[in-house]
Every structure is written in structure tokens, then in C-alpha cells.
Design goal:
It is built from 12 helices and 21 strands. The chain is α+β, with helices and mostly antiparallel strands and 466 residues long. It folds into 2 domains: 82-295, Electron Transport, Fmn-binding Protein, Chain A (Pnp Oxidase, Chain A, Roll), CATH 2.30.110; 322-450, UbiD C-terminal domain-like (3-Layer(aba) Sandwich). Strands 5, 6, 7, 8, 9, 10, 11, 14 and 15 form a 9-stranded antiparallel beta sheet that branches. The chain has a 5-stranded mixed beta sheet with strand order 17-18-19-21-20, sandwiched between helices. The longest helix has 18 residues, at 304-321. It starts with 5 loop residues before the first helix and ends in a 5-residue tail after the last helix.
Amino acid sequence: MIARDLREWIEQLKKEGDLLSLPNEIKLEPDMGAIGKAICDLQGPGVLAEKVYGYDNARVAIGLCAAFRRSAMAMGLPKTASFKEIKTKWRETFTKYPMKPRMVTDAPCKENIRIGDDVNLFNFPVPRLNTNDASFYFTKTMCITKDPNSDWLNMGMYRVMILDRNHTGCMIQHFQHAMSHYAAAKKLGKPLEMVIAYGAAPNLPIVSGSPIPWGWNEFEFAGALRGEPEELVMAETVNLPVPARAELIIEGELREPGVLEGPFGEFAGSYSTTYMTPVFHVKAVTYRNNPIMDHLYIGRGRTETDYMTDLASLSSIEQELIPRFPEITEIAFLSPKWLNVVVQGKWSHPGQPIKVMAAVWGARSLINAKMVTIVDEDIDPWDAQDVMWAIGARSQADIDVYTMPGSFASLDPSHNANGMSCTFGINATRTVADHPRHQYVDYVTPRKETAMWKDNLKKWMQGGSY
């Protein structure tokens, strides 16, 4: 069963022994960013801080999905679920879509309502996670918008920078679904209504941060993932539904003129530049009694966004590409994800890896792909050392490296002033005798008994005997 809200999720993690409660007071800065990074590096337990300096009755969570085992539980699977089982659950959800939500008239997220001049975003403990972030950021967002020309409702995860007590920036990129809604509203000469939900059932942020097909309703997908309808309630000041059991709901409108947003420590492990973004004018906030702020850390290395959405995202990507290229056996991300994609396959012709490389660059669900490495079945695409070995041993720069100038890789820290990148691919597959790219050789394969001896040595290293 998937927890119905953040509070049930926290209780579930406590029972599993996978949540650390901090009874002593912590500071939003530097503690929250440091705690979040430590959790991500160790795949440690999620953390709930019971006391926050400068706030009364405030609780802050971080890292609740910063481990693959907790992401599995967030999707209703055992914490021991394999990567394959997690991706299978995600793929099966596509066949169950749509699961229409259940609308309610009374909801926990309405326990407190503040409208107009009573709105003050600084009342909620929102950290500056990394030293040079431009402001305090909502990170684990569920931003809800509706296409002004249709019934298409979208929920996406976009970073939200607090500007003052009732205004934020919202970094929505040109290819993201909410930006198409904003562009349509702008063409009509209207602002775009938007709601930011914060702190919810664990399946909702996963769906919010993963690629869902254009035109699909994320709440209907989240219900299909859960196996029963999500409960929604209408917002107070805008015509949008919101998760009924969310901790915090922020209602308002996206409008011009824009504002410079950023810099912000991003998934690529560097600070993004500043971007001109629309301004979110907050009209109301509603929230539960003693709300829990559920933040995620993002920065260099594998962070919560990776643990939370990588396998779901890759399942969506494989669903798009494998029907066209059944020779693909697995797709993986190495850090930084999206910018570093590895495709494993069973190749029968030397032209196949190049075709697949081009397909990855053209895939809607992989629009951010910058570096694409193609490997054989004997290479673990999740193992950077294995992939680097394949690059070193199975490729030649003059014939196996392909570049595509004037392309796009979102938030690539090395893009040019116009936001353009040169994507590149490496064919790190072994040559075959019938179509040799370079000298044909046999590679060393470990003896089959190696696995047994690894187990024996592990037992001995842990103080046992083999």
C-alpha cells in the first residue's frame, strides 16, 4: 500500500527503521543542506527535524526518498525490490492509466487558510540548500497548471525561488508541459493560474518529477500507480484541484513581467546561471495544522531527485525507445543524470549503436541527453568504472566519437551564452569479425567460480568463516 499522505509515509518509514528523528533544534542554514547531502551520499535514512531555529512548532523533513529502497516503498513495492521490479511497476502503470481522481469538499489541507495580505511565505521553514543559492527554494514541488484551451491538467516539479512574502520565481523551461500552458495563456493575454502543492503522499512527487506523456493528467497517472483514485479538493482562489492531504498549498497566478531567477545548485553539480522567469503572484496559502515541510537536496553527485525519479524516468524512456530498437537491453544514467546516458544492447550490426545514439538525442523523454555512450551486454551500464573500461578498450576517437553541434541539453553547465550545447556520443561496443571497426580481439571473461569466491571473501571480511 502507498501511504495516503506525508504523515503516513513518515510513520511507515519509522516502522521500517528508515527514518531518523532529530529532537534537538537545527538551523535551516547550514544544517538542512548538509543533512540532505549526507543522506544522499550514504543512502542513509530519511530525516525529520522536530525543532527548527526561529520557528514555532515547525517540522522539516529531508531525504525521505534519497535511497532506491525508499523510492520502491513510495511506489508500493517492498524495499528489497530490484531495479527491474521498480521499472516494471512503472511500465504497468501506463496500462492502468487513467485512474480518475476522487473530488472531496473537505480536506486536511484546508485546516488553515490565509488570503491576500495575510499571506507570508517566510512563515514556512524553507532552506537555502547550497551556499550560493540566490534565495530560499521550494524544491520538492508539485506545480499544478491547466491548459487554457483544453481540459489538460499538468503537475510538474519546478524549482521555486522565494522573492518576498507573496511572490516567487518559477523556473519552467521551454520544453516542459507547464510552459506550453503559460505560453497559451500569454497568447490569450491572460495570466496562468497555478498551485504549488508541498508535502504529500510519496507517489505524487515521483510522478511530478518524471516524464509523463504530453497531454496526460499526472493525478490520473498517480492514481493508476497507487491502484485507487487520488483525493483532490478545489483550491480557494483559483480554478484548480489540489491534493486534499497536502501539507501546504500555495495558490496564485504566473504573470509577466518576468524576474531574474537563480543561481541555484542544480543536478549537474554546478550552479545554474540566472534565467528570466515569470513571477508567481501568490493569492492564498492553505495548510495543515503544524505543517511538515518536505524538502529534497539537489547538487553534485547522486541526490534525492535521482533516487526518486531515475528508475521511473528510465522506464518511460525504455518504453519510448525499445519498441523501435528491441536490441536495447537497458538504459542507465551516470552522474550527472540526463547529461550522461548509457545504453546497453545486444548488437548484431555495427550500424545499430549509431542509430540508437541518434534516437536517444531525438527522444522526447530524453530531451536533456548530452553524452550518450553505447555499450555491450557484458558491460554494467550503472557501473561508471565498467563503462569507462569499455570506452578505453573498445573505442577509437577518430571513428567512434560522434558530435552534434548546436543542440540542447537543459542546465548543462558548459552550454554557450545562447543555452546551446554540442551533444556527443561514444560507440564503446566491441568490434565484430564480420564488420571490423578495429582489430578483433577476445576479451578476458572471469571464471564462473569468481562469484562464489567473492561471497566467501565477503563472509571472511565480515568476521565469519567461509
